Automatic annotation (TrEMBL):
Leader sequence residues: 1-17
Organism: Linum tenue
All copies of domain AB hydrolase-1, residue ranges: 67-333
Cited Pfam families: Abhydrolase_1
PANTHER family, per database record: AB HYDROLASE-1 DOMAIN-CONTAINING PROTEIN, HYDROLASE, ALPHA/BETA FOLD FAMILY PROTEIN, EXPRESSED-RELATED
Descriptive protein name: AB hydrolase-1 domain-containing protein
Record keywords: Signal
Domain of life from the UniProt record: Eukaryota
Length: 352
């Protein structure tokens, strides 16, 4: 641990010595001079920030189930995970209404330099009230969006009818993880991603520099390197053609149009920094059968080690854990997967 901290400090000194800017440029806020145009539907939050959102599925007034979907890293409100991966017949049968939104700094939502797990949960609650989703709604989070769902379970459980975490990103520094287990899982990541996370945790002030410098390899996840994909992930890319995978690049371009720092880099600083709470120390946030919490994980996910999800599931008996053999991080593209997730969450049917 000491060696890692010293190494990070040495890198910081190197950055300073090379006179590289450690401060990110100001974001190009949508709708301001020099910023991208506003094309999305947006609402104004309690602190004056704008939140961009998109409504999908059946009309709210006809919906049996109302879902707030939280996109992952490098994505945005246009993420097609739920509705476009669900047949129109299933959408109508389940009566699903889904609202997706750009997390702060992503897409067309204003940045939030004070963003925390709690502030984002409160943003979701405010969005739900603005749209009139009622006293309770569901939340579904994919990848980095799964971390946001943990925040909702902590800070607004009284508003949740249920929750699903799909391949949720973990924080290797959550206190409840045994050090040996977390360290072994951490070392499964590519060396350059180990360093990217190490910087985000121990020296967050270096996050922008590290991910823009050219001296060392930076995040392979941001670069969408194929080494971060599992065997099944690669098969899905091949099966659906390059178009779907390339579309992820389009999502990333839209996601970061206001600047990578307030979207990707702040995600890294918050997601792998010191949290306000430990998810594994939580009591059941939806007691008395008020709702269920599901966690879906592929056992060959190269971005999120399955051993840590298994530990979480054992630590929290109120989690309904679903592990998919052979699946990777893109398990939501597996045919029938999303329908299985929603049927388990909404009507209690066993997911695929």
């Amino acid at each position: 641990m000491l060696a890692q901290i010293l190494a990070v400090l040495l890198i910081g000194l190197l950055a300073w010595a090379l006179n590289k800017s450690l401060r990110a440029p100001p974001p190009m806020i949508c709708g301001t001079p020099g910023g991208p145009p506003v094309t999305a539907t947006r609402m104004k939050l309690r602190d004056g920030r704008h939140l961009a959102y998109q409504e999908n599925g059946v009309p709210k007034e006809e919906a049996k189930h109302k879902i707030v979907f939280v996109h992952g890293f490098t994505s945005n409100r246009l993420d097609p995970m739920i509705v476009t991966n669900l047949s129109p017949e299933a959408v109508r049968e389940l009566g699903v209404y889904v609202v997706t939104f750009d997390r702060p700094g992503y897409g067309e939502s204003d940045p939030d330099p004070n963003r925390t797990p709690k502030s984002l949960a409160l943003d979701i609650e405010e969005l739900a009230d603005y749209l009139g989703l009622g006293s309770k709604f569901y939340v579904v989070g994919k990848s980095m969006g799964g971390q946001v769902v943990w925040g909702c379970l902590k800070y607004i459980p009284h508003r949740l009818a249920g929750a699903a975490l799909v391949a949720p990103v973990i924080n290797y520094w959550w206190p409840s993880f045994p050090a040996k287990l977390a360290n072994e899982a951490y070392k499964l990541q590519l060396p350059q991603d180990q360093w990217a996370l190490r910087i985000a945790h121990y020296a967050p002030w270096l996050t922008y520099w590290w991910n823009t410098q050219k001296l060392f390899p930076s995040s392979a996840v941001i670069a969408r390197r194929p080494e971060t994909l599992s065997r099944q992930d690669l098969e899905l890319v091949s099966r659906y053609g390059e178009g779907r995978y390339l579309k992820l690049g389009f999502f990333q371009e839209v996601a970061t149009q206001q600047g990578a720092y307030e979207s990707l880099h702040r995600d890294m600083k918050i997601g792998f920094g010191k949290w306000e709470f430990d998810p594994m120390a939580m009591e059941n946030p939806l007691p008395n059968d008020e709702g269920k919490v599901h966690l879906w994980q592929g056992d060959e996910d190269k971005k999120v080690p399955v051993d840590l999800q298994r530990f979480i599931a054992k630590k929290l008996p109120w989690i309904q854990y679903h592990e998919l053999p052979g699946a990777g991080h893109a398990l939501h593209y597996v045919p029938g997967m999303i329908e299985g997730v929603l049927r388990a969450l909404l009507v209690g049917e066993e997911g695929k």
